[in-house]
Amino acid sequence: MNRLHYGDCLTIMQDMPLASVDLIYLDPPFNSNRDYNAIYKDETGNPLPDQIEAFCDLWTLDEERERAIRQMPILMRDAGVDDDVAEFWQIWCNALRKTQPRLLAYLSYMTERLLPMRGILRPTGSIYLHCDPTASHYIKVMMDGVLGHGNFRNEIIWSYRRWPSKSRHFQTMHDVLLFYTAGKENTFNISYEPPSKSYLKRFKGRTQILDPETRTRKLVVDKPTKGLPQRDVWELSILAGSSKERLGYATQKPLALLERIIKASSNEGDVVFDPFCGCATTLEAAHRLGRRWIGIDIAIHAIKRVAGVRLRDRLGLVEGEDFEISGVPHNMEGAKDLWERDKHHFQKWAIEQIDGFVTSRKTADGGIDGRLYFSMPDTRDLQSMVLEVKGGKSVGINAVRDLRGVLERDDALMASLIVMEDLGPRKTANFRREMGEAGDLDVLGIKYPRMQLLTVPEILEGKRPLTPSVAKGRSIAQPTLPLG
After folding, report:
1. Residues 157 and 304 in one domain
2. Taking the model in full, what pTM does it have?
3. pLDDT for the residue numbered 175
4. pLDDT tens readout for residues 222-262
5. Angle 281-288/255-265 helices, nearest 10 degrees?
6. Which among 310, 326, 342 is the end of a domain?
7. How far is CA 172 from each of CA 128, 135, 168, 236, 256, rounded to the nearest angstrom?
8. Domain range holding 211?
9. Is residue 108 part of a domain?
10. Which among 228, 221, 229 is positioned nearest to 205, based on CA atoms?
């Protein structure tokens, strides 16, 4: 069955069977803040505050990235990559660490994920990596190392037109797609460009072929004119702002682009895989062309939109019959299982489930795991509630005191502590007493506790933090009155 996964593709790919995918298309994030901001603005009508940049920028050389960089030579060797490539990686990292640290963070993130892609690709499979000219040449070096230079097939240029801007260089109006295969015997279906007017005028429906004996060209009359085999420069329009395909993603790709890739490098019934599926253009194109599909995204906002708008509304698919969603807990058993498998992703799920936004860093960040944004009367700027998630069984009162300290130091107006299970009557009373010392937020005569406690069972039942006018959906919801 077709499957939509919620989670980090690195974790999920490690559990996928080897040689199980026929075609991989990936359009990985580079400017993650721009994409995240566009989605949020489309959902709420409000841009994210400037401070959200710290929560959306994946590309920093933090402790986690440095650890991944150190482990990369071992991962490469385990995946069967030549030792020379692993040695080159170390030299390259030392060169980039001081000159281009953000690029190094991005390259380590991508290489870490290209390694399992190599394993799940069938011997006849292909992979298309979509990037822009900013990093395409760096990515190609790593793909040569991981997938083999001999398996490189094309650097495809997607050329398009858009409104020009003033600059002191030529207008950048193309993307790059790097096309590799798993081996020499790859699936490839020749496509043709529409014949030009001059071609039709010259041959008038006749096809020119090469005589194998005389090595001269001759005309064959009354054959259908297909045009010429597709070049590696593709001229396709980008999506207009008013396009019916639009789902609110700033970097959304047109269906025509994905259909061309899928037709060329897969057959009906094959498995198409997109590890960064976003708004799931790949999944729709694959489904319309009779392919099976697997998609992964790390944001619950994307999963909800894909399931509701792309799969249900646009394609008429039914969850449980036509596709499955995995990785999204629906009960306590699922929540605990997610905590055991991936603690960071459990944290993301809990925060995004209450319409919050998470920090992308896995390291300690002063008690702030995410933020929930809301509007206030007489101000255009969104305000925030800081969020901290504790999934372990033993949560002490110090967690409340630490969070209160964060609230006092931060510019947020409110704070919420999310815990896995009910703490019991006595502990809950102590937590709420400590939280009550932070006072209330008075908005138009309605008082909201500045610090609040929320459990995972309550989240699963639909309970949310009590805040003024939570930014949710395409309109601003009315304030929710505090209970008790």
Report:
1. yes
2. 0.80
3. 92
4. 455 777 899 999 999 888 777 888 776 767 899 999 999 99
5. 50
6. 326
7. 21, 14, 11, 15, 21
8. 193-229
9. yes
10. 221
